[in-house]
Amino acid sequence: MKKWKYVSLTAVLGSALLLGACAGTSNEEAENSGNSAQQKENGEGQITGSVMGDGSSTVAPITEALVEEYAAVQPNVQVSVGVSGTGGGFEKFIAGETDFSNASRDIKEEEAAALKDAGIEYTKFEIAYDGITVVVNSENDWATDLTIDQLKKIWIEDGTKKKWSDIDPSWPDEEIVYYAPGTDSGTFDYFDEIILDGEDLVRSAQLSEDDNVIVQGVVSDKNAIGFFGYAYYLENKDKLKAVSVNGVEPTNETIENGEYIPLSRSLYVFVNDGKVKENKAFFDFMKFSLENAGDMAEAVGYVRLPDEKYEEGLKRLEELK
């Protein structure tokens, strides 16, 4: 397989990610993907078809890496993945428009009920761990370690124009500038549940489903603060600072062992059970994904699950077949 190392995340944040066939791979790549060069020459194990997904921009970098690797193994399968945010992805999943839906949070009760009403049975697969990372401008040398209470005071709307000095009198008497994921984002939903406790996010926040917009916003203003998935911080760590939360810095280790609480979370792919059964290409892509999700998660900056969790996922997928 290709040696991925914090691949660029920008390309996956357009209206859709469309990766088809990649002609010609090395014998080593083919072997690593479970197909020998001779098998490919003879056309053995090759399938055709199409697969459609949508959903979380946080999960998108993992999917992008998987789709590119899969195209080298099954060049006649077209995998198309949109990036509408977790909520937007579930809307398409409920409408039957997609085979799978990427999500950076668990499914909501109303979404599960809508799927039931639509007659769609589904299965949830956990694919990686993430830590929502709060970031500030690289020139910010005051708000480098925040408590949960301080995060609440910063982010919850209270009818005032907040300054850093309102959070701590020793901090600058400058107005805070906010950047955050859009309301269709699972990252927004998770932050809302854990930090906002259902209260309104500050109304002055600039919202975007494109995490790179948040990066650029924070980079451009020394009084800015934002949050997004851990991988986006790793890709941009030379431009901005990650904030420690309750004294704990987000790292692969602290995210995996649960020390980075309460902002550690799981990332998911939800699949349409019926489409797994009727679409050989979809089953094959999901099998490939679960076999390689750990490596791809690490490659793009997230944290892999224990191997047994991927094995459990593969068993559930086989049962769906």
UniProtKB/TrEMBL annotation:
Residues 27-54 are annotated as: Disordered. It holds the Pfam family PBP_like_2. It is found in: Cell membrane. It is a lipid-anchor. Residues 43-289 form the PBP domain. Residues 32-54 have a biased composition (Polar residues). Its main location: membrane. Residues 1-23 form the signal peptide. Keywords: Cell membrane, Lipoprotein, Membrane, Palmitate, Phosphate transport, Signal, Transport. Part of the ABC transporter complex PstSACB involved in phosphate import. The complex is composed of two ATP-binding proteins (PstB), two transmembrane proteins (PstC and PstA) and a solute-binding protein (PstS). Belongs to the PstS family. This is Phosphate-binding protein.
